[in-house]
Amino acid sequence: MKQLELNNRKVAVIGCGFVGATSAFGLMQSGLFSEMVLIDANTEKAEGEAMDISHGIPFARPMKIYAGGYDDIMDAAIIVVTAGANQKPGETRLDLVQKNVGIFKSIIPEIAKRDYQGILLIVSNPVDILTYTAHKLSGMPENRVIGSGTVLDTARLKYELGEHLGVDSRSVHAFIIGEHGDSEIAAWSSANVSGIPLNTFCEMRGHFNHDDSMERIAANVRNSAYEIIAKKNATYYGIAMSVKRICEAIVRDEKSILPVSGMIHGMYGVEDVVLSMPAIVGKNGIERQVPISLDEDEQKQLRKSAQILKEMAEQVL
Ligand SMILES: NC(=O)c1ccc[n+]([C@@H]2O[C@H](COP(=O)([O-])OP(=O)(O)OC[C@H]3O[C@@H](n4cnc5c(N)ncnc54)[C@H](O)[C@@H]3O)[C@@H](O)[C@H]2O)c1
């Protein structure tokens, strides 16, 4: 197969359900790309979304949006994969694993056999396991197979903290790390608001019950997907913004620090597991992970999260 030169202005989205279509809509508005290909097992769905999203172009910037096949996406700078079943009410992300690994076994080899040279951004859940699956099935280097990881959970954490403290959530620096799911960890010990340690800032704003607040906020973040799914069957706006943010960091080679999911080698005793740690993200995907400082308890929780993911990955692959 002839190798195509990558087009930094081109993106592909595989899976045009709630998450894929909303992400495509966000990417159209972002101005980052001039060409976008949509793929779905349901061809009519991809065609319909391409038409509908294209009709917004006169309010954004010129670009070409169309439904296509795998031969159309090989020069895309980024392929976003959102194909797969979503969580049903009461179902955990890990419950989804068998179903979606099966779907990946039909998608990833199509990409691998065309010797894809761009960035594969995995969004389907359970995202850490599926990023690991995509890496194994594609044989692509670890830095170019990344998961949206806890970028969304971290946005939820910043939003909740911003509301709690009456401050712009962009001034809040805090991360959710580990699994995108039930064993995720709020890294409180490194959290700060514009350089001011979180507890000091809380006290400036009249909050003194630190343990209770942290427990409540972390639980809200952890449970928000379940709550949204119970109310409206799917979550898609927050993740679409997260996809747009990650794509922006890649195509603009921003070297932004984002908690994407990637292979961990040795950090805090975690070995050969895909999970989220803050990482420098640019044109080559993950440039390197950043070992933010964690206290003993957070380190213990991270190793536990890694163990859960490792066992799951071993069962499915
Ligand atoms: N990572 C995150 O933070 C995050 C957030 C929300 C949802 N998700 C996940 O995103 C995924 C999609 O969710 P959704 O709500 O859009 O689901 P959905 O059911 O609306 O859409 C899934 C789409 O994938 C398509 N599809 C299935 N098999 C395919 C294949 N082999 N090739 C191409 N397309 C295929 C389906 O036709 C469907 O259009 C789920 O796994 C969900 O859990 C992840």
UniProtKB/TrEMBL annotation:
One of its GO terms (cellular component) is cytoplasm. The modification Phosphotyrosine is found at Y226. CDD domains: LDH_2. Keywords: Allosteric enzyme, Cytoplasm, Membrane, NAD, Oxidoreductase, Phosphoprotein, Transmembrane, Transmembrane helix. Beta-D-fructose 1,6-bisphosphate binds at K158, H173. Residues 150-316 form the Lactate/malate dehydrogenase C-terminal domain. Its EC number is 1.1.1.27. It catalyses: (S)-lactate + NAD(+) = pyruvate + NADH + H(+). One of its GO terms (biological process) is glycolytic process. Pathway: Fermentation; pyruvate fermentation to lactate; (S)-lactate from pyruvate: step 1/1. Substrate binds at Q87, R93, N125, P126, V127, D128, D153, T154, A155, R156, T235. It is found in: Cytoplasm. It comes from the Bacteria. InterPro entries: L-lactate/malate_DH, L-lactate_DH, L-lactate_DH_AS, Lactate/malate_DH_C, Lactate/malate_DH_N, Lactate_DH/Glyco_Ohase_4_C, NAD(P)-bd_dom_sf. GO terms for molecular function: L-lactate dehydrogenase (NAD+) activity. HAMAP family: Lactate_dehydrog. Homotetramer. Belongs to the LDH/MDH superfamily. LDH family. This is L-lactate dehydrogenase. The lineage of its organism: Bacteria, Bacillati, Bacillota, Clostridia, Lachnospirales.
